[in-house]
Amino acid sequence: MTSMGSVSGKTVDAQASLGEFVGYFLWLGAVGFGGPIALAGHMQQDLVDKRRWVSSEDYVEGLALAQLAPGPLAAQLAIYLGYVRAGVLGATLVGIAFVLPSFLMVLALSWAYVRFGGLPWMQGMFYGIGAAVIAIIARSTVKLTKLTLKKDSLLWAIFGVLAISTAVTSREIIWLVVLGGVVALAAKAMPRKIIVGNAGTFAMTAALSGGGSLAGIFLYFAKAGMFVFGSGLAILPFLYGGVVEGHHWLNDRQFLDAVAVAMITPGPVVITVAFIGFLVAGVAGATAAALGVFLPVYVVVVALAPSYKKWAKNPQLNAFVRGVTAAATGAIAGAVIVLARRSIYDVPTALIGMVSLAVLFRWKIPEPALIAVAAAVGLVLHHS
After folding, report:
1. Per DSSP, what are the bridge partners of residue 229?
2. How far apart are CA 315 and CA 251, in angstroms?
3. Residue 28: which of 86, 104, 94, 105 has the closest Cα?
4. Could you give the residue ranges of the DSSP H alpha helices within 226-271?
5. Beta strands 71-72 and 229-230: pairing type?
6. How far apart are CA 255 and CA 244, in angstroms?
7. Which of 4, 116, 351, 365 has its CA 20 to 30 Å from the CA of residue 77?
8. Do 228 and 69 form a contact (C-beta atoms < 8 A)?
């Protein structure tokens, strides 16, 4: 049995075997709802406060790394804590354990969707779900905006540009996202080597393209994962532009259904890519899509973790990331408008959307419960 301090150099009040540690993330991946902030909160409450398997310093450092580096926040934090616990082996096992439950659930739902999607009852369920999903994304966007922009006028300006451009073009314009980071960097820190390094990385990633082959699916979703900062919802405008408008892998209805599937399953929101991959190329496509999103995240965390303290407080890097995050948040806001135009198209869906949004702002209702109610309402309306 190895203590947490074996990798990090810090001590904690309790010890756990690697199997117990990995088992916790398998459990969290199977029951953890509520998005990245909620999942990160569970890790702090369970691993730091209750079990004392992770030191508060390690947790805070992992959370900061997850906020700075591209990729879904909760998955990054889990992989980092796995690295602290047992190096590369710990990061690998924790990453697999955290993602596997939701991946298997999405596979099952994807099969059911393809098998029964043409039946009236399935269509009725998603008729109601689509409007509720828009409300959930809108509410999450408001929360994310308050968390990331605060009262910074420059970040609000970057947010506004991306919100408008995404709403008008129905696409997330990647060079504008990168430009948001560069503008924030130029305004808040010395524009030196960090511009070339980060902008070059983003440009190289954006240059990757993919067709309908498994390699193409993997490359496309690897590119998509590099533009997720903080919330998994940040991937949605990018995915919509490529999956629906670009490659035409899915239509508008199927894309919203893919988002709904991610909302009703635990674990990272970006697991929606597995549903998309399944519709394109079955189980192999789902696997390629999931690997595309999560493998780069794993590589980034494992590569950066050993030298994290050297660059974590770099003002240039922090300024660039804040700008990119503001741009990504603006793209989510614009995507709400784009998706709403396609899912709220009559009086019943408008009512479902407005009621769902009011409920979310008024009470802390679990998102899967709200979606279940919306599905029931849609089913009744569709058969009435």
Report:
1. 71
2. 42
3. 94
4. 235-239, 252-263
5. parallel
6. 7
7. 365
8. no
Run means of pLDDT, 10 residues per run, the chain, 384 residues: 43 75 94 75 88 88 77 88 94 96 93 82 81 83 79 91 86 78 82 44 44 85 74 73 87 84 80 92 95 90 81 76 81 82 85 92 83 88 70
Rounded Cα distance, 226 and 340, in Å: 25
Give me the pLDDT at residue 292, please. Answer: 93
Q: Can you tell me the distance from the alpha carbon of 311 to that of 299, in angstroms, rounded to the nearest whole number? A: 17
Q: Tokens 């696997």 belong to which residue?
A: 287
Residues in contact with 83: Cβ distance below 8 Å, sequence separation at least 6, in sequence order: 7, 90, 91, 301, 302, 305
How far is C-alpha 26 from the chain's CA centre?
18
Q: What angle do CA 63, 22, 49 make, to 5 degrees?
A: 50
| CB burial string 179-195: b at 16+ within 10 A, e below | bbbbbbbeebbebeebb
Amino acid at 4: M
Residue 288 Cα distances to 72, 221, 282, 285, angstroms: 17, 8, 10, 5
Angle (nearest 5°) at CA 300 between 105 and 30: 20
pTM: 0.74
Asked if 62 and 84 touch (Cβ cutoff 8 Å), the reply is: yes
Name the residue with tokens 């135009």: 341
The structure tokens listed for 125 are: 């369920």
Q: How many residues does the chain have?
A: 384
Closest CA to 172 of 306, 53, 337, 372: 337
